[in-house]
Amino acid sequence: MKVRSLAVAVPVAAISTLLAVAAITAQTAQSAQSEAPAAPMTKSMMWTWEKLEPKPTKVGARREVGRFPTTTLAEFESHITTLNPGEKSHDPHTHVNEEVLILREGTAEAYVNGVWTPMSTGSMVLMGSMVPHAIRNAGKTPCTYYVINWKTKNEGGASAAK
């Protein structure tokens, strides 16, 4: 079965719900700022915006949420990126794992199925396995988006980025 990327507009409130589901999947009570153990997480986890410190990048800023194995995943990874006006995350690229992008604020365009597609606040994109994708700031103010990434145990935690 071929997986395709899809762009879906969702209410801003849905961001909290999706992150809560991701946190439950992560299954840990540990703080996001501490080192994740090598063993899979077995409890729930929550992150608060105030504790996710932005680190400057060449294109804006990045807040690390976490990267660790869970009971059902070889790896769960999430971060929050802020892009300055006119900047892009990277050129379109592919990798084995699917990932979800949710626009928190600002105006962006996502590279979906070969087309730069407008995103408004609250929009969500599911990036399919090995489907070229990227995101860029299409506005005059910074845009911020959540990234939720996972690798299944079948993938062995390996990514075939191109």
Attribute tags:
38% strand, globular, disordered C terminus, 162 residues, 1 helix, Jelly Rolls, mainly beta, seven-stranded antiparallel β-sheet
Structure description:
The chain has 162 residues and is mainly β. It has a single domain (6-28, 51-155), classed as Jelly Rolls (Sandwich). The chain has one helix spanning 13-26; strands spanning 6-9, 55-56, 60-68, 73-83, 99-105, 108-112, 115-119, 123-127, 135-137, 143-152. The strands form two sheets. A seven-stranded antiparallel beta sheet has the order 1-8-5-10-4-3-2, covered by helices on one side. It has a three-stranded antiparallel beta sheet with strand order 7-6-9, with no helix packed on it. The two termini are 21 Å apart.
Topology:
Blueprint: E1 6-9, H1 13-26, E2 55-56, E3 60-68, E4 73-83, E5 99-105, E6 108-112, E7 115-119, E8 123-127, E9 135-137, E10 143-152
Antiparallel strand pairs: 1-8, 2-3, 3-4, 4-10, 5-8, 5-10, 6-7, 6-9
